[in-house]
Amino acid sequence: xxxxxxxxxxxxxGGEYFGxxxxxxxxxxxxxxxxxxxxxxxxxxCIKGARADGHSYANSAxxxxxxxxxxxxxxxxxxxPYVIVKSTLEAVRTLGEYYRxxxxxxxxxxxxxxxxxxAKEIIGAVLGAKLNVLKTKMNMNNxxxxxxxxxxxxxxxxxxxxxxxxxxxxxxxxLAQMVRPDIFVMTKIGYSHIxxxxxxxxxxxxxxxxxxxxxxxxIAVLNGDDELLLGFxxxxxxxxxxxxxxxDVRAVNVHANSVDSVxxxxxxxxxxxxxxxxxxxxxxxxxxxxxxxxxQLLGLTDEEICKGFTLYExxxxxxxxxxxxxxxxxDDCYNANPNSVKAALTSISALPGRHxxxxxxxxxxxxxxxxMHHEVGMFAAQTGxxxxxxxxxxxxxxxxxxxxxxxxxxxxYKSMEELMEEIPVQIKKGDxxxxxASRGMHFERLLPIISGSQHAQRKS
Length: 460
Hints:
Elements: H1 6-13, E1 16-18, E2 31-32, E3 43-45, H2 58-63, E4 68-71, E5 82-84, H3 88-100, E6 107-111, H4 116-127, E7 133-135, H5 145-150, E8 159-163, H6 171-179, E9 183-186, H7 194-197, H8 200-207, E10 219-223, H9 227-231, E11 237-242, E12 249-257, E13 261-268, E14 272-277, H10 284-297, H11 302-309, E15 320-324, E16 327-331, H12 338-348, E17 355-360, H13 369-382, E18 387-391, H14 396-404, E19 410-413, H15 416-426, E20 432-436, H16 447-451, H17 454-458
């Protein structure tokens, strides 16, 4: 059994153990930072946040079954054993790195400016057709989420798919030192965190830090449709995926069946088979070949890979589709950057009915802000969006770009309240409606209004 104990946690992290002699060697499995998520046997990580101090919830965690706590200070009247370290964040990273080293199963790391969560879910689904797979939950892709994910590994797992998100130079090195991926998938080099990283070359440099922490026999799986990734040399075996003919594995004959599914053929020197992915979004076809490569590398047959695609389910807030009150609603509110917005616009353009895009600001684009918003507006017009509704100071440039490219029926709203009031007037039965903006814009507030029955009564 690959189990931790309180005394081993103290040894690995360089911390000081507090507790009885009998409790030193009780088994610890899994780790959480929220006392509401504690399951019996877990390690509870006490983290001092802006709004709450995890140390205040340590005894609550013990009451829920926590086997041990990792803390930065003494826990008064502690109801269980704990280890004091200088920094719980640094200690959990050290612990995650150590615990990962106990496993020899293949670990797949995934990063990219856009599509990394979707790729993680697709690859996890494909591998799940044959293997017991651990994959990153929700958005736990940072310096805390990654070690917590690694610490949930157990001996039943046969592979792991770990999403790795960064904001600045050095972040990927921190993550990769823990994950030590055997296969590293890169989806796209785009404008996310461009303020910190400067330009696309900076994004490339930051994300490819991971290759320094891979073994010589590691494998890079890169999006060959991305010019920077196509030209990048990872100094190890490189396989490319995408839609273009020169990729090692590619998707061709892509056809979106309304919102129900996307069909395409997978073509490579080794394989040629048809896939039906039960989800909305023609952009999914460009990521699917990555899952094929990873599946084949880990020994899956084409039949098993096809079965795995049928198990895919989108993550909440990312291209989720609802058919309600006569409209098709695409909830893509989770986040937005120029690449992801363009992909979303491309997908909605393939749907029947009138195409309505409700777009908000794309944040953290730095000096590229005005240009990128304007280009998204021009692209919206190019894809045939019939109605564009924008809200936010920056999104006024989306509106201007749309109009400059002969787009018609567009409005920009100064406030969220104005947009909320106008939505029932602007949409009607039969519309396909995309809602997308950066997370900080909180466009999820629009979903109940769009889903309501008011628009069905106003226009039909």
